[in-house]
Amino acid sequence: MSTEKLTTEIRKEQIAQVAFGLIATHGIKKLSMGRVARTIGLVPSALYRHFASKDEILDAVLDLIGDRLLENVKAVCEQSTDALERLNLLLKLHIIFIRENQGAIRVVFSEDAHADNPARRRRLYDMIQRYLAKIAEIVAQGQEQGVIRPDVEPATVSMMFLGMIQPAAILWQMSDGAFDVTKHGEKAWKLFHDAIQAKVGPCDGTHDSARRN
Amino acid sequence: MSTEKLTTEIRKEQIAQVAFGLIATHGIKKLSMGRVARTIGLVPSALYRHFASKDEILDAVLDLIGDRLLENVKAVCEQSTDALERLNLLLKLHIIFIRENQGAIRVVFSEDAHADNPARRRRLYDMIQRYLAKIAEIVAQGQEQGVIRPDVEPATVSMMFLGMIQPAAILWQMSDGAFDVTKHGEKAWKLFHDAIQAKVGPCDGTHDSARRN
DNA sequence: CTCCTTTGTGAATGCCTATTCACACTATAG
DNA sequence: CTATAGTGTGAATAGGCATTCACAAAGGAG
């Protein structure tokens, strides 16, 4: 009874946010119209005043995630100009994002999100590719700066960048937080950093990040 | 009518295999008792003669996957004694496994597989950890052999090993095969190889795998 | 103030699902 | 041959789900 009436713009935003939150905490499988509605204080059918279907709500949630990823890239680019430092910062931001929104990222890589829906699959694929392209851009720029070895494809590097975090994130969630993503991120970064950095000089033996432990 | 009667041992095997195949092709979301039964030529209720629940069938499928992963490790250990070569072979086997069984691996990392079921979550976590431990073993042995740099933790390396493939596998599936996992695997391996190999001599400039392209 | 559009309600519908159960068949042990 | 345990059948149950629809309230435009 008597939930206050809000304009559809506000409601759409609210619904997407709530759906995002529910996915982050309970997983996408548990996301139902009823649950979203109840969380807001509405009745399920009310959601259809603002979204035509559950699919549309999911699309809105995915947009939220995609935007956030690109925001992270933008943030690190403003914070530093050195490519390696940018990547390191981005890694940290990504991990923070994961930790703050448990299951959220998994949705992007999850099957449910696009099981039957080919249109959404394409959208998701594009979203990930866009993120990867931004990372590759940073890498390419690092190669021009001479801080990243020139004999690797930026696309490969960006893919491995993702690989530094994503499986770890899953393990973190699987283990109920026992597995330490942050720690892993730091260790993985050292290895990754060494792998992609330009050899310093022709051969001067310098390897400042290859110190023990 | 009249599907021949088989012993429960054979049926269990058959059901697990069929369920695995269905997951690989249609994804776990589409896996239903009805579908499994129909594929075999049975009626849904017949499955309950051999498994107490759908969950038990899923467990059997996960065992299939886990076994296969460990088999891969065993195979590469028999095929070579050099740690780096073993890892390279394992990478290739893993990619083949992915290509042959599309969605199968995703299940292990997928949320559906353990959304509510904490027992299975633990089983899956253990399964992955076992696989990672085996890889870490190879790494540690490579460090003793002197072919892998000693200043990295084997656990970190094994995690990154997984990271070389898993996100790529997802992209491959998302893109309907457009994204080339095999190619990515090769390029990523070069980078990974350089990252973990022991420095050759104090400083002789040798970097045989750091050639362009 | 009144009308009409927008937003919220509650019940109903229809689909898909896992699971159960009484029954039927069949092979084999005795 | 016959009883019995093991296996397959078909119908029925029950729960969850997205979605629809006729109706109610609310609030701004005129």
Short description:
By secondary structure, chain A is an all-alpha fold. The first copy, chain A, has helices at residues 8-26, 33-40, 54-79, 83-100, 104-109, 118-145, 154-174, 181-196. Chain A has eight helices and no strands.
Can you describe what's shown?
The structure is a homodimer of 213-residue chains. The first copy, chain A, is mainly alpha-helical and 213 residues long. Chain A has a domain at 61-196: Tetracycline Repressor, domain 2, CATH 1.10.357. In chain A, 67% of the residues lie in helices and 0% in strands. Chain A has eight helices and no strands. The first copy, chain A, starts with 7 loop residues before the first helix and ends in a 17-residue tail after the last helix. Mean pLDDT of chain A is 90; it is low at 204-213. The interface between A and B is large, with 56 and 56 residues. Chain A binds a DNA duplex (30 and 30 nucleotides) through residues 1-8, 11, 32-34, 42-46, 48-50, 53-54.
Q: Tell me, what's the shape of chain A?
A: elongated
- Give the distance, in angstroms, between the N- and C-terminal Cα atoms of chain A: 61 Å
Portion of residues in beta strands of chain A equals under 5%
CATH superfamily of the domain at 61-196 in chain A: Tetracycline Repressor, domain 2
Helix and strand element order of chain A: HHHHHHHH
